UniProtKB/TrEMBL annotation:
Gene3D superfamilies xrefs: NAD(P)-binding Rossmann-like Domain
Organism from which the protein derives: Cohnella cellulosilytica
Protein name: SDR family oxidoreductase
Family (UniProt): Belongs to the short-chain dehydrogenases/reductases (SDR) family.
Classification via SUPFAM superfamilies: NAD(P)-binding Rossmann-fold domains (SSF51735)
């Protein structure tokens, strides 16, 4: 198989959590452009349906839209059943749903702490475990989890203790799963994006000064775009990366290299 062929995902079955918008939508689009059928998994069913329809109409692949709260084990089990009913297998699990709550640690309630950990870390555990069980039976599969450069550095000045802790957890969880499942043909990797301007962040007037500050300290002089994460996602998803597991890919325009 030639190198270009190895990047094709024709016939593969994927899902992307948090796939309705932002980074997840961009990744789902990339997987579909490479030929995969994609399930859009999100808390927001209406947006997920819009994204799924947009992708299938434009790219001619099969899509599903599934409402799931990744922090809820019953939802996650149902999601896996729905994907198997629609697609028959799972080759690519992209666990990307995540939230951030900016509150100083001294003022954070247990509920606020727990919400971020439940979605960002426990949600990645539940979805990786459920998809991983299917992949272990299949003897193959690629799990890709969205971490963050916040797994490696502490953002300043915004206070994000729970977010930073959750994303560091995602990296270590993913490495642990990669090692447990390596000999069964299931690969697990993380992508750690730097600041990425999504439709939502770019439109928010509250974030404008923060974005300007990030741009002023970024070595590239700008924040990233969701489409700049697409190539690494397609690489990790399929046959281009059989020897790549337990790895974390920082895509941050050298922000953490400063
Ligand atoms: P976003 O808020 O634009 O999109 C997140 C999506 O996840 C939304 O569609 C939302 O409905 C969904 N979601 C939220 N909670 C959910 C839950 N419990 N179950 C299922 N779906 C849920 O965010 P984004 O900027 O596209 O970020 C996506 C991922 O990338 C997150 O994990 C985030 O932490 C990470 N990340 C983002 C940046 C950035 O600068 N945008 C940088 C590093 C990492």
């Amino acid at each position: 198989m030639g190198i270009i062929e190895k990047f094709r995902l024709n016939g593969k079955k994927a899902y992307v959590s948090g796939g309705a918008r932002g980074i997840g939508k961009s990744i789902a689009t990339a997987l579909a452009e490479a030929g995969a059928d994609v399930a859009i998994v999100d808390l927001d069913l209406v947006e997920a349906q819009k994204t799924a329809a947009e992708i299938s109409e434009r790219l001619g692949v099969k899509t599903l839209a599934i409402r799931t709260d990744v922090a809820n084990p019953d939802d996650v089990n149902q999601m896996i059943e729905d994907i198997l009913a629609g697609f028959g297998r799972i080759d690519i699990a992209f666990n990307n749903a995540g939230i951030c709550i900016n509150i100083p640690a001294a003022e954070m309630t247990l509920q606020q702490w727990q919400k971020v950990i439940d979605i960002n870390l426990t949600g990645v555990f539940l979805t990786s475990q459920a998809a991983g069980k299917v992949m272990l039976r299949q003897g193959s599969g690629s799990i890709i989890n969205t971490a963050s450069m916040s797994a490696h550095i502490v953002n300043y000045p915004q206070p994000q203790a729970s977010y930073n802790a959750s994303k560091a957890g995602v990296v270590q969880l993913s490495k642990s799963l990669a090692i447990e499942w390596a000999k069964y043909g299931v690969r697990v990797n993380t992508i750690s994006p730097g600041y990425i301007g999504t439709e939502l962040t770019l439109q928010s007037p509250d974030l404008k000064p923060l974005i300007q500050q990030w741009e002023s300290v970024s070595p590239l002089g700008r924040i990233g775009r969701p489409d700049e994460l697409q190539a690494i996602a397609v690489y990790l998803a399929g046959d281009a990366s059989p020897f790549t597991t337990g790895a974390d890919f920082v895509v941050d325009g050298a922000f953490t290299a400063i």
